[in-house]
Amino acid sequence: MVNTGKPSASCETCRARHIKCDESRPSCMRCQKLKRICPGYRDLSKVRFGGKPASRKGNTPTYEHKPKSSSEYVGDSLLSDFVGSETLLGQRSLSSMHFRVPEHEAAQCFFLANFILLPSTATKMGHLNFIIPLLNTASERSPLRSAFSAVSLASLGAQPNSGGLLSKAKLSYVQALKQINVALTDPKLAKEDSTMATTLLLSVYEAMVRPETDLKGWHSHIDGAVALITSGRRRLFRSEISRELFLAVRELMVFLPSLIGTSKAPNRGVYWWTNRVPEEEVSQRYALLNLHVAELLEDNNKITTLSPQTACNTEIIVEFLTRAVQLEKQYRDWQENQASCWEPTTVAWIDNEDTMDFATSKAFSERVEAFTDLTAAYRYNIARSSQILIWTSILRAVAWTGYPKDYRLTTSYSNARRRCIELIDGIIASIPYFLGWKGRSDEALAGESQSACSSNLKVIGVGAFYVMWPMFVAANSDFATPEQLAFVKGRLIYIAENSGINQADRLIQVC
Questions:
Q1: 3-state class (DSSP) for residue 343
Q2: Is-cis flag, bond preceding 404, omega within 30?
Q3: Which residues belong to any copy of the Zn(2)-C6 fungal-type domain (predicted)?
Q4: 107 and 57, same structural domain?
Q5: Is the pLDDT of residue 406 over 90?
Q6: Contact indicator for 153, 229 with CB cutoff of 8 Å
Q7: 252 and 351 both lie in a single domain
């Protein structure tokens, strides 16, 4: 776009891209076509050019893009989640962009493009999409703004030639922690949606930065969000944003802690968490089953370590085993009969070659899956992962009851092996979809469409966030092959190096 010597009236994204904007109000049509969240337009009356205030005479009124609800953003496409959410700033353009766009503005645009996902028609679920309307109403000194600055700077700072931003991200994070601690002491502020959203953003920051020892920082923010939900100090679910916040917290609470051995039975009970907000039947059943899985995993950590093999302990183990078998059947029935709307389709078949390097390959041998959208893919893989964890609990109980006999000679082990191999194969087949592979010549899906700033970065943050933990479950199963383990570790390295989610590094260490 040629510099005419006067301030550009383009939206923030088009200005960053240096392309012509159609200047539609309230949001740019280019952004809408790419299914992006348009950041809106700046106030030209406040722009200084050549050291002088811009003339106010003849100015047209400026409009600020303030969506009333994050549910207004709806994306519906087969694979356009990648095209519409690809990286805003590319590796080769980062250093030059810093001279043209203020670093905070560039970081925020980068984060919006890579880590904010609009609600889909299949699941009515997005990723952090509630942040936008909350930021529009947040004060300058709000902890939400500090947390948003922290995650934005951290995400961009993980890219090449941008490492200097990480120290600034840390300062914003510390400031957000101080502000949120003050807000939590105020009964009124503690009830605000922005307080809950801040807590969730802080957990995202912990996932992005390189953990010093373990995942406690990330997990503590999830615990804090759960405590806010269950404390009774918030007026819950009176708005669409409150509903989305509740569902986001429940999604984190139910499944992710179980993967690091800290699973807890849901506070306030399973049915309290499934009756707070209206949901479609398939989503409500999905949540209910995962809540029961969380209960099962907590009991698994306690019960299957009982000693000695007394009659009383045996009775406890048998009851636990019966419950686990019933839950596995319920989950399998749900997946076969109710979750068909989330099912993947096979879009490619990769022949197994002797020369294939699984540690660097973008797709594993055999089938490659695609889904209706990212959130449907995420939930379907969580369902697969939950069933693997159920079978792990079943086998631990079988081994306990049959000791000292070899549990691998039992019918339960044969059934578990057959089913877990099927589930692991499915997770492995889905990984290319999340990371943007399009099915030929090892090219990335994002490469098919020019991204907002001529990006050559081919992985998006949301897809990486969504696929990391199912990959972790698959890799830690006794039924994963050495080739699958090598492939998963290679993809986790790819995520850590290309998306800036350093939590992937930690997962590699424990795979």
A1: coil
A2: yes
A3: 10-38
A4: no
A5: yes
A6: no
A7: no
- Number of Cβ within a 10 Å radius of residue 276: 17
pTM metric for this prediction: 0.78
Domain count, the chain: 3
Q: Do both 469 and 424 map to the same domain?
A: yes
In which band, very low, low, confident or very high, does the pLDDT at 265 lie, cut at 50, 70 and 90? low
Start-to-end CA distance of the chain, whole Å, equals 48
Task: Answer whether 151's CB lies under 8 Å from 208's CB.
Answer: yes
Report the interhelical angle of 503-510 vs 461-475 (nearest 10°). Answer: 10
DSSP labels, 382-430: HHHHHHHHHHHHHHHHHHHHHTTS-GGGSHHHHHHHHHHHHHHHHHHHH
* Residue 291 and residue 263 in contact, taking contact as beta carbons nearer than 8 Å: no
Residues 32, 93 share a domain: no
Q: Is residue 18 very low, low, confident or very high in pLDDT (cuts 50, 70, 90)? A: low
169 and 299 within one domain? no
Residues 167 and 213 in one domain: yes
Amino acid at 141: R
- Asked if the structure places residue 375 within a domain, the reply is yes
As a whole number of angstroms, the distance between CA 434 and CA 362 comes to: 11
CA angle (416 as vertex; 413, 417 as ends), nearest 5: 85
- For residue 189, the enclosing domain spans 77-262+270-277
- Cα separations in angstroms, 51 against 8, 98, 210, 293: 16, 21, 42, 63
Cis peptide before 39 (omega within 30 of 0): no
- The last residue of one of the domains, among 243, 277, 311, is 277
Decide if 244 contacts 197 (C-beta within 8 A): no
Three-state SS for 207-266 is HHCCCCCCCHHHHHHHHHHHHHHHCCCCCCCCCHHHHHHHHHHHHHHHHHHHHHCCCCCC
> Residue type for 145, please?
R
Angle separating helix axes 374-402 and 311-337, nearest 10 degrees? 150
Residue the block writes with tokens 């912990």: 206
Last residue of a domain, one of 277, 306, 337: 277
Quick count: other Cβ atoms within 10 Å of Cβ 473? 25
Chain segment 443-479, per-residue pLDDT in tens: 444 333 233 333 444 447 899 999 999 999 999 999 9
Q: Hey, how many other C-beta atoms are within 10 angstroms of the C-beta on 61?
A: 7
pLDDT at 232 over 60: yes
